[in-house]
Amino acid sequence: MSAEKLATRVTSIRVSPSTAAAQKVRDLKAEGREILNLTVGEPDFDTPHAIKTAGVKAIAEGDTKYTPVNGTIALRKAIQHDFKTRLDIDCDLDRICVGGGAKQILFVAMMATVEAGTEVIVPAPYWVSYPDMVVANGGTPVIVHCDESSRFKLTPEALEAAITPRTRWVILNSPSNPTGAAYTAEELRALGEVIKRHRDVLVMCDEIYDRIWFADFPAQSIVSGMPELADQALVVNGVSKSYAMTGWRIGYAVGPKFLIDAINKLQSQMSSCPSSISQAAAAAALTGPQDSVEETVTVYRARRDRAHELINAIPGLSCLLPDGAFYLYPNCAGVIGKKTPAGKTIETDLDFSLYLLEEAGVASVHGGAYGLEPYFRISTATSMEIIEAACAKIADAVAKLS
Ligand code: PMP
């Protein structure tokens, strides 16, 4: 067999653009170029010691066998407690599922509900994987552009206008990758009112960054203030970002029982269960002291503030202050149409991002990858020195445009 015979679900999707950008950085570094990498989508911290120890203990004590497909009771109790205490979400243990990362939960949830003819509303800018996850499952992503003037957030009017009889999901990612914008309780309530009127529409709340939080309003879920939405909402979270546990691969969700059962049924045929060792470590992360989260948030906040200040000081670029997560999404409209020293016109944010890579040795991801141009995403999951050096190089490169 050859590649032409591969299933459409593979040929119709892309390799994640952030993965592709990270590969380009590796290639350039291999050629001996010094690159300041602002593409990284994972914490630059190590997994806290106590969490690692819980993983080691699980191995030593023989906690190394299949677990229930929906996760160990210990982990689900920890998740239940976390949802209750932080977000005021009540749920029985059988409404919680655990999988190999939030990404897997999101994918399997779509697999359970999306097919040809199904529409999924994806507000843009979006996390790169959402549209491809919809397409891989045969559905149609309905992209709704959200302007910078609304802090890149979906408005109730835009949501209502995008809903059709074929709509299965609307995706809300708060705080957002790539913009860092988060929804307030009032905004969530207004969106919730629309969703409530459409009983066959589900809302997928991707809250993977909700502990990396800087805003002066509290982190909330759409279900926090509207328990009546519990049978229409899948609230997804995980330990990857908050506890620097990207390699452990544990994500989880709370949702209506019929949907959690469907996710479990699919996972029983796909993976049997997530790693027993990682589940023990994730339970320790959720139930143990939270100082490591607080310490890293303090560091991320300082980096966000500095990057925000430095980017906004560059003529032609401007950037909103993120409410959470570790990304900034600067607007680069002011450099579009300008000429590089080599005489090439910057026509798109991809041209600009490539110019930054070639001229300044700074790697970023262009806004087109997230469905809203002209912007570019930079990550602050790297040292303050690299952020400052990269912003200085971006400033020099922009100053050379005419
Ligand atoms: N959602 C968003 C918005 C993300 O940025 C990521 C990671 N890049 C994920 C989900 C997936 O996280 P996990 O490691 O839990 O699969």
UniProtKB/TrEMBL annotation:
Its cofactor is pyridoxal 5'-phosphate. One of its GO terms (molecular function) is L-aspartate:2-oxoglutarate aminotransferase activity. Keywords: Aminotransferase, Pyridoxal phosphate, Transferase. Residues 34-394 form the Aminotransferase class I/classII large domain. It catalyses: L-aspartate + 2-oxoglutarate = oxaloacetate + L-glutamate. The keyword Magnesium does not apply. NCBIfam families: PRK06107.1. Belongs to the class-I pyridoxal-phosphate-dependent aminotransferase family. Homodimer. This is Aminotransferase. It comes from Martelella mediterranea DSM 17316.
